[in-house]
Design a protein that fits this description.
The protein is built from two helices and seven strands, in the order E-E-H-E-E-E-E-E-H. It has 121 residues and is an alpha+beta fold.
């Protein structure tokens, strides 16, 4: 038996909440940010959604701009650390790609620290 593939730093398409009033049927991209050991052990992962159409929008300290072509994205998108949440792994539908750039990973970690108030005081 082989070990599951790592999914931290991967962008997936995720189904919208199955709740009746959630506008079902549509999907959106998310980035898996949770630690890989937790991803492998738990039935949930921590994700941050990506806002599409980021061309003429301000990027705040708790956000990171991802340029089109990054990890399979067709358009620019913004990592929205302030909307982090846990979702069942079964909701991750289609993998788009993985962020490989260490500077980009560091920027996302920094945005998460800003959002959570974990910046050194």
């Amino acid at each position: 038996m082989t070990a599951p593939s790592p999914i931290q730093w991967s962008i997936f398409t995720i189904d919208r909440d199955p709740a009746p009033d959630a506008g079902g049927g549509r999907s959106y991209p998310v980035l898996v940010v949770s630690r890989e050991s937790a991803n492998q052990a738990l039935p949930v992962v921590t994700v941050v959604p990506l806002a599409r159409g980021a061309k003429h929008r301000r990027v705040y300290p708790n956000e990171v701009l991802l340029r089109s072509g990054t990890a399979g994205l067709e358009t620019d998108a913004i990592v929205m650390a302030h909307l982090a949440r846990a979702v069942a792994k079964s909701r991750l539908v289609a993998p788009l790609g993985t962020i490989e750039d260490d500077d980009l990973k560091a920027a996302i970690r920094r945005a998460m620290r800003v959002q959570l108030g974990l910046e050194p005081g």
